[in-house]
Structure formats: C-alpha cells, structure tokens
Amino acid sequence: MLESVGSLTGGPWIYALVALSVLLDVFVPVLPSGVLVITAATAAAAGSATGQVGHTVPDILALTFCAATASVLGDLVAYRLAWRGGDRLDRAIARSRRLTTAQERLGAALARGGGALVILARFAPAGRSVVSLGAGAAHRRARDFLPWSALAGLAWAAYSVALGYYGGQWLGTTWLATGVSVLALFGAGAGAAYVMRRPAKAS
Questions:
Q1: Global pTM?
Q2: 3-class secondary structure for 11-51?
Q3: Euclidean distance between CA atoms 36 and 12, whole angstroms
Q4: 28: which residues sit within 8 A by CB, 6+ positions away?
Q5: Distance set, CA 199 to CA 135, 136, 140, 188 (Å)
Q6: Which of 41, 171, 173, 191 is disulfide-compatible with 165, CB 3.0–4.6 A?
Q7: Cα(150)–Cα(128) distance, integer angstroms
Q8: CA dist., res. 31 & res. 22, Å (int)
Q9: Which of 178, 127, 119 is nearest to 145 (CA)?
Q10: What distances in angstroms separate CA 28 from CA 37, 53, 87, 127, 146, one per listed residue?
C-alpha cells in the first residue's frame, strides 16, 4: 500500500498537478483538488515513516504553499473575470438566489471589516466559486477581498495537508487513512455550508 500511494504522488510533478487542480476548481468545483492534496500529504507521511528524502515524496511545507498560492490565484482570476463580466454576468447572478444572497452577505461582511464568510466559503462545496464571483460582480475592492482570500487559501491548504499527513502518521499510510482524512475534509465542508446557509442576523 505504501508503494501504491507513493507511485501516485512521487516526483516533483505532483506540485504542478496540485496547483493546476486547485487553480481550476474555482471554475469546475467537481475537481477533486482536496482529495489530491490529502493523498500527496499521506505520501509525505509515508516518506517520513520510511526515512525517504529528496524528490521522491512531497514536502508538506512546499505542498501547503503550492495549494494556498494556487487557491489565491484562482480566486483572483474568478474575481477579475466577474468584475469585467458585464450585463450578462449581472443577469446570471440576479437569476441565482445563491449568488445574490452570497453577494449581499459578502458585501456586509467586508463593510464591517471582517471576512469570515470568505474563509468559510473556501471549505464549502462550490462556496469559493460563489464568493469569488460575487465579490468581483459586486465590484468589491481587491484590498478588502484578497487578504481574506489569502487567509482562506492558507487555512484550507494547511487543514487539508494536516489531515493527510497526520492521518497517515496515526492510522498508517493506507487508503483507509486517506479515506478517513477525506471524510474529515468533507465534514468540514458540510459544516461550513450549513453555517453559510443560515440567515444573517439583523444588526
């Protein structure tokens, strides 16, 4: 089992694959970027257990940085595209209750100087897409949105890597450990989605 996990994630190309997957899943939320990050982190745990070093297994700090950076870049691309989207995108958002609600709540959160919604959305299924597009379509200032996007990307990447790495350390570098870690990631996503769906309290 150790060898099978390592064969999937060994070599420096895993960083490019993780970056591409995380970058694109803001547009295609069904891409399994979280699963890929966890699997690579499990392989890092396998390398740690066997004393492997160098380019044969991913480095967890490099993996975290790679995933977080790609997350922010993906958010920025979606934000800029939505900013320039014009009337067609505005009409599409107006027809979507989910996008309209997220846009309103994001605007209120950023106006108060907080961005917890941006961080929550990074964990919720498709939440990252909704918030990034909503921020751009509403022409929210980049200096209000992007720092929270960076914090969200780092939190998500660190959580995903930690799940894979420590899951492999505690449960063994097997597919069972990877599966439990993925379930924990999905659990966090379900919790974030639940909180985001709750109506905002009137101030």
A1: 0.80
A2: CCHHHHHHHHHHHHCCCCCCCCHHHHHHHHHHHHHHHHHHC
A3: 14
A4: none
A5: 19, 22, 21, 19
A6: 41
A7: 12
A8: 8
A9: 119
A10: 16, 34, 22, 12, 20
Longest alpha-carbon distance in the chain: 57
- Amino acid letter, 56: T
Contact of 134 with 105, CB cutoff 8 Å: no
Question: Residue 135 is encoded by which pair of tokens?
Answer: 């921020």
CA–CA distances in Å: residue 4 to residues 46, 62, 82: 11, 22, 41
Alpha-carbon distance of 152 to 31, in angstroms, equals 18
Closest CA to 128 of 165, 82, 74, 86: 74
In the chain, the amino acid numbered 22 is: V
What the block records as the tokens of 76 is 């920025």
* 60 touches 161 (CB < 8 A): yes
If you search the block for the tokens 């396998």, which residue do you land on?
46
